[in-house]
Amino acid sequence: MSEMKQIKNLKQFSTSKERFQGGHRLCPGCSHSIIVREFVNATDDELCVSTATGCLEVCSTIYPYTSWDVSWIHIGFENAAAAISGVEAMHKSLKNNKKSFSDKPMKFIAFAGDGGTYDIGFQSLSGAAERGHDFIYVCLDNEGYMNTGGQRSSSTPIGGATTTSPAGKVSYGEKKLKKDMMQIMAAHGCEYVAQSAPSNWKDMVKKAQKSFAASGPVYINAVSPCPTEWKFDPSMSMEISKVMVESRVVPLYEIENGSKVTVNYKPKNHVPVEEYLGMQGRFKHLFKPSNKHVIEEWQKNVDAKWEYLLRREEAGI
Amino acid sequence: MEQNRIVWDGNMAASQAMRQAKIDVVAAYPITPSTPIVQNYSQFVADGDVDGEFVMVESEHSAMSACVGAASAGGRVATATSSQGYALMIEVLYQASGMRLPIVLNAVNRALAAPLNIHGDHSDMYLGRDAGWINMVANNPQEVYDLNLCAFKIAEDYSVRLPVAVNQDGFLVSHTTEALNYLPDDEAYKFIGDYKPHNPMLDPEKPVTYGAQTEGEWHYEHKMRHEHAMYNSFGVIEKVLAEYKELSGREYKFVETYQVDDAEEIIICMGSVAGTTQLAVDKLRAEGKKVGLVSVRLWRPFPKEELAKYLGKTKTITVLDRSAPLGSTGALYNEVAAVMVDNGYNAVLLNYVYGLGGRDMTIDHLTEIFNSAKECSDAGKRVKPLIQTINLRGKELSFY
Amino acid sequence: MTEEHLLKGWEEFEPGATLFSFEGKPDQEVHHENNSVQHSVADWRVDKPVHNKEFCIDCQFCWVYCPDTSIIPDVDDKGKGIFGHIDYKHCKGCGICVDVCPTNPKSLLMFADHLPVEEALRQWPEKEEKK
Ligand code: SF4
Ligand code: SF4
User: Residue C24: inside a domain, yes or no?
Assistant: First the structure.
């Protein structure tokens, strides 16, 4: 069994050995690497990481450079979960047969964007979760296919303008609500399912550590504000992330053993969704009078979801 | 070497060889006609006959993905598939070879839909032709067993480090029981040897990145390194087959020949049809006809030089392709034609597309093919269509 | 830009295009020539952050939220992480560190990349009155 790393505050956390190096080619202000650092630096255990094709993969391992100080593999877009399940199975096999390369505790993480999670990698994730591999799946959710120029995914929220759900004379952009991956992964019976935002490092690190302590499959939905395709200034990534949390667009919550809901943070002040939407170019068109109803619908959905989570938390189911 | 005699079908032969290889991770998904391999292996797990992990994944794509993950992690890995499953794997087959991972795949060959068909032909094997795997072809259960043991040893050799597919015909080999000889467990394992890890992800003393993106300045060099390894493997394959002969008494060559020395008409083929062709050769030889057979054992890397040795003196060569080329001559034909041109040989060349979806190919059919070739030999030129069909209902169909 | 010395011939590359993080054992902390820490992305930057230690409270927000691992911490004599320096080889000038810095005036501010640090410090603003 591995010891949980002590991280009480940033003064302590910042003495960590860095496991994800600079010199990668992610856009300035990208939240992906912030999430990755909060996650992989939250343990001293050895790590094997798989990553789905996408911004993180492309930008962190463009030959001849790797940004990873831990073992890492990328196979394709749709199979980050299957890949890490193979690595984990080999670890188990070698351990059971006393052929391990090392006795050090070893953890297994898959990072994938929402495209590689909600869409093309969904089957692979579902399979690996159902099989119960000891792995942590972290979705870096920036609500679209940003690596290929900002196309819609099933994580793109209603009203969002992407290059394949553009706003136009007769369209307000994306028509569908965002898919609820949290519930889907909880329904798989994952030991631990949680949503977090990078601007709340404490929440992220706590959830990372809970993930490392779990022995079954873990799913983390980490919202990842994208300056390039959400269209905001790179310096604002953490501000956007904060407003997402404060406006309850992204509730910080967790689901344990498939059912037990805990809302980890309850914003004191009511921040309207409108404020969040107004910070990003991708929602600019919603502020035209003819599209006002979409903002109203947004607010209704956010309130209903929040209400639902609170009631489940209260009911303990 | 004292050996045991037993009756196995091709699937069981593959399964037993996998058991003896003490594989660390098998990740697999069942599909006809390779399903029994996955079932047999599940039974080995249930009976405690194997120690490794068995990952029953949710698709062939994930099967090969998990195999790639497991092999990069640092241990012996194998799987099995067929047809549509093979097609679903294809993306990851390229990844496995590009990352130079010594995975062994039992490919139980079957037709590709549409229309759907569960029986044997070589469409799936041809689909994987350019995927960068070493491909061997086993024509009966004995060969399936033997080539599986050799496959691990070849794949894992440091100077090769390439995945190997052992192909066998669906049903015709996979579900046909035959008496065969197999090695005692410890002898079989000793022959393969312990797995020799190379840059394992699981070694925390040397973190490694697999699957980086290589753009303009790098991709060509890496691909050519892979290409070089492919050609380099000829020597290792030859050595391993020689060692295996030493151990088992059974000899395997890149191309197998039968009655070719003075043959005027030669059939070149792959897979179980070689056995039937051999019988046809015997029959025709008894009638005084100078016919012979070349069966290609090593599909990739393709043994051009070895094949050339047998094609210089004959009059007519008929190449059998068990897959519809759909717009050109068959893949095996094209290889043979290239060897002829490269060596300045000028026998008449004919191509038959046969046996699709498990359609029978009998001694009579093969006799007909040899006779047709003989007409060309006698005329000293091609007097038959270039691409012909056999045992096909309807109006005679041929091309060119 | 690719560093010339990495442009090897096909026969010199590791089979399978693998890359290594370290030269030797990880605990020796010598990064491999193929680690991206060897690669400069400084030319991505238009403005650069400048640190003013006079106001810094060593909260380390800038360290945790820097997407480019470019706030390099130091450790004080009690073993606690404190602000160390900015790694201008990897900083892309996104400005997040400035945004998250909680002091008043800020201990990190953006300046034109060519402006000398001493000059930037001379231009540092006064404490802002809360409105
Ligand atoms: S400007 Fe951005 S990249 Fe540079 S140090 Fe600050 S947060 Fe890091
Ligand atoms: S965020 Fe500001 S106050 Fe905190 S350590 Fe960084 S520079 Fe100092």
Answer: no
Q: How confident is the model at residue A3 (pLDDT cuts 50, 70, 90)?
A: confident
Q: What is the pLDDT of residues A282-297, one digit of tens each?
A: 999 999 999 999 999 9
Q: What is the mean pLDDT of chain B?
A: 98
Q: Is C59 in the pocket of ligand 2 (CB under 6 A)?
A: yes
> Among B248, B266, B285, where does a domain finish?
B248
Q: Are residues B203 and B275 in the same domain?
A: no
Q: Identify the domain boundary among B248, B271, B290.
A: B248
* CATH number assigned to the domain comprising residue B162: 3.40.50.970
Tell me which residue range forms the domain holding C92: 41-126
For residue C2, the model assigns a pLDDT of 62
Q: What average pLDDT does range A211-221 have in this prediction?
A: 96
- Assign residue C55 the CATH number of its domain: 3.30.70.20
Q: Is A240 helix (H, G, I), strand (E, B) or coil?
A: helix
In a domain, C85, yes or no: yes
- Alpha helices (runs of H) in A4-142, residue ranges in sequence order: 10-13, 32-40, 55-60, 80-96, 122-131
For B23, nearest residue in chain A (alpha carbons): A93
Stated pTM of the model: 0.97
pLDDT of residue B239: 98
- Does residue C45 have its Cβ closer than 6 Å to ligand 1? no
What CATH number is attached to the domain comprising B259?
Answer: 3.40.50.920
Q: How many domains does chain C have?
A: 1
In this prediction, residue B202 carries a pLDDT of 98
Q: Please state, in angstroms and rounded to a whole number, the distance separating the CA atoms of residues A310 and A298.
A: 18
First to last CA, chain A: 30
* DSSP secondary structure of C12-54: GSPGGG-EESBSS-GGG--B-TTBGGGS--GGG-SEEEEE-TT
For ligand 1, whether the C-beta of C110 sits within 6 Å is no
- Quote the CA–CA distance of C51 and C120 in Å, as a whole number: 9
Say if C29 is an interface residue toward chain B (CB within 8 Å).
no
pLDDT band with cut points at 50, 70 and 90 for residue A316: confident
Does some domain include residue C109? yes
Which among C62, C85, C127 is the best mutation to test ligand 2's pocket, defined by most ligand atoms within 8 Å of the CB? C62
**Number of domains into which chain B is organized:** 2
**Domains (range + CATH), chain A:** 14-315 (3.40.50.970)
User: What tokens appear for A150 in the block?
Assistant: 């900002």
Cβ–Cβ contacts within 10 Å for residue A317, how many?
9
Asked if the structure places residue C67 within a domain, the reply is yes
Listed residue (C79, C40, C84) closest to C60, CA to CA: C84
**Nearest Cβ partner of C90 from A22, A38, A233?**
A22
User: Which domain, by its residues, includes B195?
Assistant: 4-248
pLDDT value of residue A1? 52
pLDDT at A277: 98
> Closest to B211 (Cβ–Cβ): which among A73, A85, A90?
A73
**C97: Cβ below 6 Å to ligand 1?**
yes
Residue C109 to residues A22, C59, C86, C115, C118, Cα–Cα distance (Å): 21, 16, 12, 12, 13
Contacts of A113 (CB under 8 A, 6+ apart): A52, A54, A55, A56, A139, A140, A141, A142, A145, A146, A147
- Residue in this structure with the two tokens 């060692």, named with its chain if needed: B243
